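User: Hi! I'm working on a homework problem where we have to compare a predicted structure to a textbook description. Could you give me the structure for the chain below?
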Amino acid sequence: MKISAFSETLDDHTPFEVRRVVERLRDGLFDPLGVKLLTAHEMKLNQAFDQGSSALKNNKAANLCICGAYGQGKSHSLTYLRQRAHQQGFVTSQINLDPREIPFHNFRQVYQALLSDIHFPDAGETSFINQWKNWCKKNRSQETGTNQKTLLPDDMPHVFKAVLVALAQENMRLTQREKELKKHAAFRPREFPYVLGRVLRGEVVPVYRLRHALKYRQVPFYKEAGLTCKGNEPWLQMVLALPRLFQQMGYRGWVLLFDEGEAIVQTRITSRSKSYQLLHRILVPESPLPGFYPILAFTDDFFMQVQQEDYDRVLIRKKMEIPCFDQNYAEGWRSLNLYRLHDLTPKEWRTLCEKLIILHGRAYGWQPPEKRAREALSICLKYTRDQEARLKLKALVEQLDIIHQNQLFNES
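Assistant: Happy to help. Predicted structure tokens:
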């Protein structure tokens, strides 16, 4: 973004929004508006994202892997791409993987994190449940659950089909006399939305409570299969099926952004093996998945570990040899779309300093002395040249703070 266009963009935002950007930069954090205003290499990022977006249009599989060192801007880039995805009509979810809190080999926890951070491009903070219910009210009849079932992907797990249909259905109508009968003792209409929402979000709910909710929400097919989810498969199937449902609802698909992907290799070998299997099905599916666009951010540690794995290693169980890995993933992932982050050039840092001077002035309502500010920020960059980008930005903002305080002191 050129300096002139940058100044014009700031006119579209309130002083509070601009000040919030500076405050977060001072704390070493990034703000969505700050990402929009200060992202470098945005043209290359746009091209990388649009390549996958075009592949989806042509019914091809899409993926993008962002590789960079710690502090080089992976999280910043993911947030920028999330904004890009919203502009193109995608639903998005962005999560940070963690070997303890959100381990990739336990895909139920991954699913829960994705559902809790889901955002729709035209609905702000509206939840998936509300979006689904509102869309059903606007577009489809709610007379029978069978009509709702036809809208759902065939390979979506049975329990989630039943839950989604139930969420769009009305409660069975009972007379006051019927409510007093023993056979309807489980009729608790206030509890049903809570139970159904918990199941959809991946939480544990007693099956008998779910059955009651489905029965009284008039879901005719809920007895056709089991209502429990075991292992990773149901959660992975649900993640792979949701993009087609979002397309049915009028969106382009679902962009999944995984930060700190190197957490996948920070576990023991059995967990890594499970994670690799899941990741392979996400990044290199056997057939194209309409609307499904995974984006992962890694450090080089991830790819080094994948290269160094002993893919011939076996475990001995009950005197039988069991392979640790089902294939050589170093070979299988050679065709991934890789976008490698690079440090900013001196020219790009100078441009960023120009933007920070304007941004700081707008945030606090003052006119920075341009020549003095440029010189001070140039010296600051020399002293921080070996530090990561967010620490450099923090130091630059603090330098502008000093100049501002000195100016206020001189004026007083």
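For your comparison, note the following. The radius of gyration is 26 Å. Strands lie at 64-67, 91-96, 254-259, 292-298, 314-317, 320-323, 338-340. Good luck with the assignment!
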